[in-house]
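Incident log, structure service

09:12 report received: a user says their structure output differs between two submissions of the same chain.
09:20 pulled the input from the user's history:
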Amino acid sequence: MNGPVAIILAAGQGKRMKSDKAKVLHEVSGRPMIHYVVDAARGAGAKRIVVVVGYDAESVRSCLADDHDVVFATQTEQLGTGHAVKVCRGLLEGYHGPALVLVGDEPLLRPEPLADLLERQRAEQAACLLGSTILPDPTGFGRILRDAAGRFLRIVEERDCTPEERALAEVNPSCYVFELPGLWDVLDRLDPGNAQGEYYLTDAPAILMSLGRKVTALNVLSPDDVLGVNSRQHLAQAEAIMRCRVNDHWMTEGVTLIDPQSTHIDGRATIGPDTVIHPHTVISGRVRVGARCRVGPFAHLRDGTVLEDGVEVGAFVEINRSTLGEGTLARHLAYLGDAAIGKGVNIGATAVTANFDGERKSRTTIGDHARLGAGAIMVAPVTVGERAVVGANAVVTRNHDVAPGQTVVGAPARPLEPKG
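09:34 re-ran on a clean worker, output below:
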């Protein structure tokens, strides 16, 4: 088995979330938290990723079904983090090398510090290397204890801390690199004699040290990296930080955000250079926006939307699973769902593609350089040909296609009769 490998602990419910679904499935910037942790492990170099599931296991498996480098281990009893890692042994039997051990509720983890930890572990041949950080408010985290020379001694869980230990600011965010197979024997030595009666993975580094193995704690993580999501308040904090990261990325790539604080861009979206995003715009899901587009204010681009270069989508326009060709304009108050729209099309105010009949969704096709008047409704399935004109407030009923170059008016829409 090629390495490195990663183990991600994702078996918990997260009772403080007050939710019926697994904690790691709650979304940050449109994606379940577990996806970000898997991406971070993969980005750091992990070749195989073992996700430990327990509560709502089938939903977590389904969420990661398309990730072919991910396999699953099941923790049927919640006996602690040490036990959770131990259930992975069968899947990693025979593997010799480094293993990242992460938790699935830290969606802000970045691959760069994880890659640094893997490289330092390799260079130092450490049996265990911990990533730590210093927090202004360490509440909720285990504390890192060091000796007078600054050498790592052990981790103490917060509930087991003395008052002096509780005052320490360096914390353990549950980000480790262990050398396998040495970890497996250590897990057999864990003692559940603690406040929770659980097998703590945090006891493993001290056991390794007692066996004469090298253990190091490195302060390489930022406070943002280790924000663990244990409540809806934490979820909102993670969302705000992720939104800033995504927006900063696109501004660096040449996209103008008039007001980044009011702009929401899903982490799966892509945007071309010289595009301008106006305030209160929401881009959610797998959306592709080309170069030199203008979007918003108050626009909503939903999953499956594609804007080719030079498209303008203005105020209060919603687009869902639709493609708008180069130079097409939809400047205000339109809904375009399940539509294939050509280039150079002008879409008037309050125009609608009525894509849902109560039972099924159907497609609308609009040819190049067509014009849709204000209030026009296209009842799908229907096609509007190239350079056709749909008059203001016209209703093009299903399967009554508009021929190329034709002008239709009225409700239901009929060809405009020539004068005289």
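09:41 both user submissions now match this output. Likely a transient worker issue. Closing.
09:42 reviewer note: The mean pLDDT is 94. Residues 160 and 263 are 43 Å apart (CA to CA).
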